[in-house]
Specification:
It is built from 3 helices and 29 strands. With 349 residues, the protein is mainly β. It has a single domain, classed as Beta-galactosidase, Chain A, domain 5. It has a 9-stranded antiparallel beta sheet, with no helix packed on it. Strands 1-2-3-4-5 form a 5-stranded antiparallel beta sheet, with no helix packed on it. The protein has a 5-stranded antiparallel beta sheet with strand order 19-18-21-24-27. It is globular.
Amino acid sequence: MIHSSVFGKTADGKNVMAFRIKDGLNEATILNLGGIIQSLRIADKRGNPVDVVLGYYDVAGYERNSGYLGALIGRCANRIEKGHMCIDGEDYNLFINDRGNHLHGGKIGFDKKLWNYVFEGSDGNTLALSTTSPDGEENYPGNLNVQIRYTLSGGELKIEYAAMSDKKTVINMTNHAYFNLDGEGSGDVLNTIVRINADKITPTDETLIPHGAFRDVTGTPFDFRDGKKIGQDIDNTEDADIRVGNGYDVNYLLNKRTGEYAKVAEAESEKTGIVMEVFTNMPAMQFYTGNGLNQNGKTGHYGSRAGFCMETQFIPNAVNCPSYAVHGDPVFDKNKIYHYATAYKFSRK
């Protein structure tokens, strides 16, 4: 059963709702503002609840939310070079909001919207959010109808993304939760052990734009295939991609077939014993270690590397790079259904 309450009001006086989903000892709170995961309480090795996502206790914090903490991202996650794309010979110039590029949907992305909501499922434990992005919003073509489902069950938070447009357009959605399995506000995540099932990353230029190339992770700081602590190689500034991102801020091409739903990553806290497995049918995942964080959160200050993100998605800038689009094309024809899913499954050692 989902319990709802008023979380607060926006600057223009609109109610923001909070939806609390219980799953045994675990509990998620989702906002209809930006579809934000406001808290995610997971039982640790002693059975005590630990909030493992960064965030705020008030609406004002989320309205400022420069780091997209916990938010749904769309229409297009990650970066598009110089905000430019061409669809069927027509050029579109999108809002520039990051180092001369378009990032995370532009000036007013899905993270800023107040979503409609209903409760679904036989036991009412699925929250379905919906919205419409009108033709021309942020200069994207097409009226886009979107529905997002959050389900918490069996220790797993599953997010299902569905959308359809009445014009050919770009769709690439994700969630920008920052995880700290030691507990939000507990410090940095450098001791978190991470595994990523990927042989390749997409190297970037100095503005974090990839241009169609791939880089083998073997012998680089980006090799997490056998598992290692985040902090082991994060400050290896001899590596150009570490230096540009000031740590990890890079996209991985996942080791699986396009469209296959599979486990792609894992993270583990030695302190709490909490293990998080990541499943998806998306082809790629951005691994970001919160290098730019510098804000006050729920229980204290979030400094650099206070959380990490595992954002499943199509490869960034794939709209301009055919070598990326072959692994998953973010351009969807009129009336073609976009349907992808990602799950964060929690257990304890």
